[in-house]
Input
Amino acid sequence: MKRALFAAIFALGVLAAPAARAQSGGVTLIKNATILTVTHGTIEHGSILIRNGKIAAVGKDLKAPDGATVIDASGQYVMPGIIDCHSHIAVDGDVNEGSISVSSMVNIADVLNPEDIDIYRDLAGGVTTANILHGSANAIGGQTIVIKLRWGKPASDLPFEGALPGIKFALGENPKRSNFTPPPGVPVRYPRTRMGVEETIREAFVEAKEYKTKWDDYNRPKAAGEQNLIPPRRDEKLEPLVEVLEGKRYVHAHCYVADEILMLLRVAKEFGFKVRTFQHVLEGYKVAEEIAKAGAGASTFSDWWAYKMEAYDAIPYNAALMTDRGVVVSINSDSGEEARHLNQEAAKSMHWGGLSYNDALKLVTLNPAIQLGIDKRVGSIDVGKDADLVIYNHDPLSVYAVAQKTIIDGQVYFDRERDIAQRAELEKEKKALLEKEKKSAAPAERKDEKKPNGANRPPKAVSF
Amino acid sequence: MPQRMMRRCVGLFAGLGAACALVVLLFAPATRAQGGEPRSFAIKGARIVPVSGPTIEHGTVVVVNGLIQAVGADVAIPPEAWVIDGKGLTVYPGLIDAMTDLGIVSAEAGPPQGGAGAGRGARRQIVPSEIAMGPEDRPGTTPWEIAANEIKPDDKRIETWRSAGFTATLSSPKGGIFPGQGSVIDLAGERAGEMVVKSPATLDIAFTPVGGFWSFPGSLMGVVAYVRQVFEDTKWYEQAEPVYAAHTKGLERPVYDRTERTIARALANKELVLIPGNNDIQIRRALRLIQEWNLRAAIYGAQQGYLTVAEMAAKKIPVLVNLRWPEAEKDADPDADVSLRELQFRDRAPSSPAALAKAGVKFAFYSGGINSPRDILKNAKKAIDAGLAQDVALRAFTMDAAEILGVDDRLGSIEPGKIANLVVADGDLFNEKTKIKNVFVDGQRFEIHEPERPKEPPKGNMTGKWTLNYTTPEGQESSTLDVTMGPDGTLSGTFTGRRGTSAISSAWLSGNTFHFTISITMGPAPTDVNFSGTFDGNSLKGNISVGGFSTEFTGTRPGGGMMAAAEN
Output
């Protein structure tokens, strides 16, 4: 029954209006809630005061200031908004520029689609922030961006302010096109081996370094006042790689098997950049110490594997084992469906591997915030942080938990009650529009023509 | 001169050409009958809508040597002018279709689409003709193609458009990301050179991935990245070229690249850059990129402009509105779910022009692939019904279009000195019952006759997709006819055969007989192919004739046709 209701939300969510009653800059008090702060334990019957989109106070005996909106969360749970470190939602067009092995000139930020229904569905699953990645068809893929799921706002309002942009790398079967055969007439794309993937990445960084040198060689005499210099060309492919070398852009590397994880760490060390996160990283448990030592994060699945050769050696203990070895671990969705129950995905690590309740919560809150460099802003319920919160009717780590309200910057972007209340109205509007269209599309009927009445209506396919 | 006249009439023969011969032979005053077409006209006693000024209820327009010489309530008529009695007629500036490919006949028809002629197309479908491995390979990039150089005056659509009141268009090369540069052309002339008004006028850009999965760019973000790189390269060329030119000794020479040189010249010429943006997401993206790339640009599409008018007004970006409003697919599964968002879009798209006007955004209209030019005005009427003031709608087809395209010094209004492009109608232009009587292009008069057709109401409804089967000297062939029938039996739609897709014209169903014509390129020039026959509710049967050749054909609905029962 609950399941059916939940499904209905997703079916109808398309129609729901965005944060219609949002109170930007207003004051809201959530009271009587079980508050899962992540950083300083659980507060029973606690309150959260939100002012100007930030958490102004957290505690037991907070009073609602005059004019504040009060949300009574009796019997409910509040946790930090879920952060999905690997998402492909909200993209207009293809998520892969799959034609070439280094596609770093393309940028997800150019094609954000704020009307993708998966944003709303993610909100209904408690997600408030997502790292929108390019696909994994290339050794070096496109530029990536962290967004807040501000449903109803234009694309320009989605980017997470101040979050460092990233770039997608990919190792293994996808970039070497193991599972794709080009049609006749199309040359086979290099690389076709894991060795070739490594060589492609190295080659790109050799180019990037040369490119940087070229600009330095131009800028130096120019600064000294020399005239008649022809500048180098701007190269949209190499600019983001220079940013990686300068630490201005994070590397999120799609990977599966242990040896290529070590390979990328070696290449990064050689060229002097950091891998910010390993994504999927299903064999991370085999090289957890090396990952921890390099200061890289790991963003993995709870128990999703064996969908291809390189995903066979996976175990559900991966998240727990890497956590034990000191890696900052998150659980991601990689899918608009999985993103709707990341709370449950996190909970599985308590069963598989025995993570503590709080460490399990961290997998989808504080840890992905650290991985994305936004932990000063989000990831826990602390005074001064963004009021990005989700209210559940049950303990979020239980299978009965259903998100009731999802709040970003203090504004309610998903409200289950409101969603349900709006459905009939939206259905009505839809029906009316369909009727109107039918009427205007039908050729004008002549008066003398008899219309078949309802009972003897001909089959649908025949009517005009 | 008589020879010149003959050529013109032969060239236009179908329908209209005959009319122009009649005009000259029967009605031209004797003093000029020997000399050929008159070069001066006076339309006297007509209602005149100059657009640039208030309507003159009873006035005269004088046209001399292709230009408007005078307009007003009381102007002198030169003695040699051929006087046309304007009683009951309204004179408008000639209409402008602000974005088309009129006159541009692609050398090679596109690949056959689906079903018909199976096997032929299968091989070609996914492999792009050239594999591009990055921006440096310049995929889908031919900015040096200038429409004026490609115009074929015998494109049958030129006459069709003109007969509906359109006297000028922006014509642009098509295909690719940088398809080329558009030219403003007048819709009459024996040679392309006579037709060109301004060229090049625009630098066209489309955000269409051209590479599929196998060639760059295969994604929307790839296209945006590519266009960005091209503008970066252009900027580099603008910087590098003068430095090199002044110091050829001692500097490595810049690599020659046709794309960046062409685009640099277009930008220096202040050509209008055309950027696509139809829904709100695309429009906002276009606004952002226009600013980032620092372009003098217009956005084309704009059908969801009703959601973005504020931003558009703030940026003062002109807009070309596509009049081919979104609608349900003709053969859509009636049980398929359609999102509310999509339904709202279809419902509200025609309200965009009114919203743009209210916000003070300058816009022009374009046909956007509408096959029958009469539907252009019909669709503009939908915008008027959705709140657009009629005079603003008229401006969007005339003065505002001319201003956006940078030809308002020559076109767009009835003012002395401007090109004599006029429409003479027997009533209000946006009234469906109004008939266009005369069209002047460059001062040359075309008398418009309604195509003759039987008056009987249609029996049954031909709307839908048809598969036509016939035998030609090349063997068994089958084609697809995709038509929509209006209440009076008028048919519109497309015909897709081996030679690609073309619009049908002179198309109707009257009683149980139907007719339609397509224009295909056979040899050097477009040729009319006529289809006529009978329709029994389920199937078509008839004759195809082209030149001296004729063959029989049959037509069936691929989805099965049980509609006769519903109709009777």
The radius of gyration of chain B is 25 Å. Chain B has 16 helices and 24 strands. Chain B touches chain A through 66 residues (CB under 8 Å). Chain B has a mean pLDDT of 86.
